[in-house]
Amino acid sequence: MSTDGLLAYCRPGFEPELAAELSERAALAGFHGYARTERNSGYVPFLGVEDGAALSRALPWSSLVFARQKLRLLADVAGMDPKDRITPIMEALGGRGRHGEVWVEHPESDEGKQLAGLARAFGNALRPALRQRGLVTDKDEPRLPRLHVLMLAGDHALLASADRNDASPWPLGVPRLRAHADAPSRSALKLEEALMCLLTDKEREAFIQPGMTAADLGAAPGGWSWVLARRHVRVFAVDNGPMAASAMDTGVIEHIRADGFRWQPPKPLDWLVCDMVESPSKVAARMATWFREGWCKRAIFNLKLPMKKRWDETRDCLQLFADQAGRPLDVRARQLYHDREEITVYAG
């Protein structure tokens, strides 16, 4: 069945938050549709709009917090014969233009992961058939949209299209990172992912350079400090708790035993990072103080979310931060793969 709207992926269990975000932002942009959710499915279709392309432009992927991936929904293909899934998919793609690549995926849910083998095998059969029909280019063409086939079951798939300049570059919207043996904690992966997802390649090169200075509030045992130290940034690690030896062995981390909500730097710093377990509004207000007082140029921090009304809390905390920061900032926020009940924010 052909349709029009958006398809977004999210962390399983956060479908209501993604649906609330899409619904509110679509309405503010003048689009009236509805989100269809299934708890723990890992994806949310947004339907009922007349112009899915216009809605997609109005809601750029970089502005969405709970969406790991944002696509333009093309068709819902149900009731496929397992002996011939290709024909109904090609029929659904008729008149939908040409694509430069095909990704066959499965939801990042417990049930969806069971479809991983099918997705791989079906992708190997589907790609040459689509190329033969002229629906997909013979070689990867980055100037054309990317086709996504999301397998929901053996007989059910959603077809969607990605503008490569307005979508995640990773399958399922998840960058693959490996934990380093010397990392003081797995939380290091959160900052690694934040730097990868919230900054461009050029920004990382320009914004993080050897000899820069940073503060890590609530640093112990030192995962985030260690990530910065590996990039030869000098770090004030602020925490009353102990730091891991692997962090202190870098030689560029100074451990300051103090309260992260009270400590202030002796001079302005290039970076502030913070992963403290505290109410999100309190963290947002403290981060705003650092910018208002001119104590840092850029920051990455986490906001721990409550169990209920998490989209409302996210929106309100980001607004509180913007209102109290004292100057216009480029603010980007996302729930990353290595986040759990939290979101990660970049400001600079």
Q: Could you explain how this protein is built, in words?
A:
The protein is an alpha/beta fold. It has two domains: 2-173, Alpha-Beta Plaits (2-Layer Sandwich), CATH 3.30.70.2810; 188-347, Rossmann fold. Helix content is 31%, strand content 24%. The strands form two sheets. It has a seven-stranded mixed sheet with strand order 2-3-1-4-7-6-5. It has a seven-stranded mixed sheet with strand order 10-9-8-11-12-14-13, with helices on both faces. Strand 2 (34-35) and strand 3 (43-47) form a beta hairpin. Helix 10 (280-292) runs parallel beside helix 11. The longest helix is centred in the middle third of the chain and has 18 residues, at 116-133. It is elongated and about 65 Å long.
Element layout with pairings:
Layout: E1 2-9, H1 15-28, E2 34-35, E3 43-47, H2 52-58, E4 69-78, H3 86-93, E5 101-105, H4 110-113, H5 116-133, E6 146-153, E7 156-162, H6 188-198, H7 201-207, E8 213-217, H8 223-230, E9 234-238, H9 245-248, E10 253-256, E11 269-274, H10 280-292, E12 296-304, H11 310-324, E13 331-334, E14 342-347
Parallel strand pairs: 5-6, 8-9, 8-11, 9-10, 11-12
Antiparallel strand pairs: 1-3, 1-4, 2-3, 4-7, 6-7, 12-14, 13-14
Write a concise synopsis of the structure shown:
The chain has 348 residues and is α/β, with parallel strands linked by helices. It has helices at 15-28, 52-58, 86-93, 110-113, 116-133, 188-198, 201-207, 223-230, 245-248, 280-292, 310-324, and strands at 2-9, 34-35, 43-47, 69-78, 101-105, 146-153, 156-162, 213-217, 234-238, 253-256, 269-274, 296-304, 331-334, 342-347. The radius of gyration is 22 Å and the shape is elongated.
